[in-house]
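Please supply some protein, with fold tokens.
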Amino acid sequence: MANLKKFVPPVEFHPGITLSEKLKEMGMSVKEFAVRTSKPEKTIFAVMSGKSSVTSDMAVAFESVTKIPAHFWLNIQRGYDEYVARQKREEQLSKAYEWARLFPLAKMMEFGWIPTVHTADEKVKALLAFFQVSTDRAWEDYYLNQQLKVAFRISLNNIKEAHAISAWLRQGEIQAAEMPTAEFSEKILRETIPAMKSLCAEHPEDFAIRLQDLCAQAGVKLVYTPCLPEAPINGSTRWINDVPCIQMTGRHKRNDIFWFTFFHELGHILLHGKKDIFLEDIEYEDKQKEKEKAADDFSSRILLSQTEESEIIKQGDFSANTIRYYAEKFGIHPGIIVGRLQHNKVISFTAHANLIEKIELFS
């Protein structure tokens, strides 16, 4: 891409300066000019001192007396107004740098979420463009103060990692916007769950892409977004423009946790409303614990039912061969059984680590 020179408005002076020079050239007093243009003398003084703008009506009147076209006066005014606005903008950007420093900028650049930039102003501009807001105050209104609840329905105000979490969520929105899907169908989604569970059991190399395809067929967007160090989040579910979106990090890099999280998020879509947004592994003010438990139960039942789990525990043998036997019997990956037994403290957290698949969503 060619280097673009910084744009500087061509007019950095108020049209009042031009008017003052023209009246001097014409040898005309302010009072006479005011009479000839049918404008109050104080208005002409205000224009000449830069305290008032030249309006369309004024420009036409000035044209009759000065013989300078109205569009000339208006163009100078527009150029000056733009110059003032850009100067104000630069001041805002300078003040916003303290806000920008609260984000994990280096990591966001490394991930390619924002361009690699170096100066303070460039970093602020990159963040504002990333979030599609004009000021740091606008970011606060959207993510912290819930000024637009229809779009972002929880407040990150009391979350320690608010800035990093907002960046992670925003990146998920960007990814989801680029992903085509069918129209959402709860019926198709429920019918697709067995295929998803089979994918979990088989664990093919391309399982992550194939899972996205299965979700897309049911009208669900599944995106994988790397976890920011300051945002230890595991997943999120929300509806974006009436389309359900699941966002996952895979940060634990274990197939048992990945699949539990996925079906947990799927549970939120099937069990809860479009107005909810859910963040996993993060405590926030609007968190609804009863809905989180319902999603946990949904995920547990899909992967390994209570009856199946009880059968495994009751027989008392938790050797690797026995776990493989029950995994094949119940059509699930051995790592899922290991993870469940570890979670319920039936076996130690280090037992059968070799049966758990390591997951790398990002190369």
About this structure: The first strand starts at residue 221 and ends at 224. The chain has three domains: 15-95, 98-177, 186-355. Residues 100 and 132 are 14 Å apart (CA to CA).
